[in-house]
Amino acid sequence: MPASATRFDSFVSLATRLVSKNGRALTINGRSEADFKDPAQPWLGREVASVSTPTDGVFVTSKELRDLVRNLEISDTFGNIARDSSGILIAAAGLGGIRISSRDTVTDDHLSAVWSIRNVEVIEPGAVPILWILEVGK
Which of 58, 65, 54, 50 is nearest to 16 (CA)? Predict the structure, then answer.
């Protein structure tokens, strides 16, 4: 871990404890593009790799998500949050270094419900990811 990261150890452990204590089991279903299917024929597209990462997350209402986005001053990322949206908070330490994108989906392991990720933001002071904030919807 870089020397600048050591200042944020307490925040990382706090986020991890809060999410693991109050969260429920989720799976991040990631999709990433790999190499071209055929390098000689790039117009055929790329292979798509799927990765499932189990983690814990805390669901928040759209109002709570709006308040959080406003208080953290990240409204430029989220814009207008849809009324039918929910929010999910995920401690970055529980993801093992993977990054979440709006192409991914989230599965609520308890309800077997699949959510689309509409917006995503990571809180990472000093380049140390602490907390992922997701806007999700059906």
Answer: 58
Domains of the chain: 3-32+46-137 (2.40.10)
DSSP string spanning 29-48? EEEEEEEESSTT-GGG-EEE
Pairwise CA distance, residues 131 & 113, whole Å: 22
Q: What is the pLDDT of residues 47-68, one digit of tens each?
A: 777 888 899 898 888 888 888 7
pTM of the full structure: 0.76
- Report which secondary-structure segment, H or E, holds 75: helix 75-78
pLDDT in tens, 86-114: 889 888 887 888 889 888 999 988 888 89
